[in-house]
Amino acid sequence: MKPEETIDFPIRRVWSRISRLYNTEAAKYGGSMAVGQILLNIEPEGTPSTKLGPKMGMESRSLVRTLQTMEEAGLIKRVPCKADKRVVRMHLTAKGKQMRDVSRDTVIKFNEAVQSRFTPSQLNNFRTVMAELDRILEQEQLF
Fold first, then answer.
1. DSSP secondary structure, 18-62, as one string
2. Inter-residue contact 42 to 52 (CB < 8 Å)
3. pLDDT digits over 84-140, tens only?
4. Helix (H), strand (E) at residue 76
């Protein structure tokens, strides 16, 4: 079987290119795609760090390391929950909010540029296939 005939190869190749594109843009601001993704997933009222990993599909080791780097860079701060001291919520600092705006603008520009090249029907088919693939991988043991 040729790589082009598989399901995973084109997904991996395209994701690698998207990742490179986002990382190149984020580097201009001293960030990375992972940092931008985290910034976009922190809610205004704060988000527990334990909720971030599953929300973004990130492993806890990578997430902890990235959160430490973000805290050192002044993008986030950790705030213990008053009701339950075991829970720590991540909050954006003013610098983090500015960086989140840059991340949001970058994602919007990327999506507008890509979506403008496809018909609504093509985009709908793409989303349907990806949602079903995600469901299959979530619910079924393939091997």
1. HHHHHHHHHHTTT--HHHHHHHHH--TT-EEHHHHHHHHT--HHH
2. yes
3. 888 899 999 999 999 999 999 999 999 999 999 999 999 999 999 999 999 999 898
4. strand 76-80
Q: How far apart are CA 77 and CA 75, in angstroms?
A: 7
pLDDT digits (tens, 9 = 90+) for 49-65: 888 888 888 888 889 99
Per-domain residue ranges of the chain: 3-139
For domain 3-139, give the CATH number: 1.10.10.10
Find how far residue 72's CA is from the centre of its chain. 20
From CA 140, how far away is CA 143, in angstroms rounded? Answer: 9
The helix/strand/coil state of 91 is strand
Token pair, residue 129, equals: 């296939």
Write the CB contacts of 7 (distance below 8 Å, at least 6 apart in sequence): 133
Strand partners, 88: 80
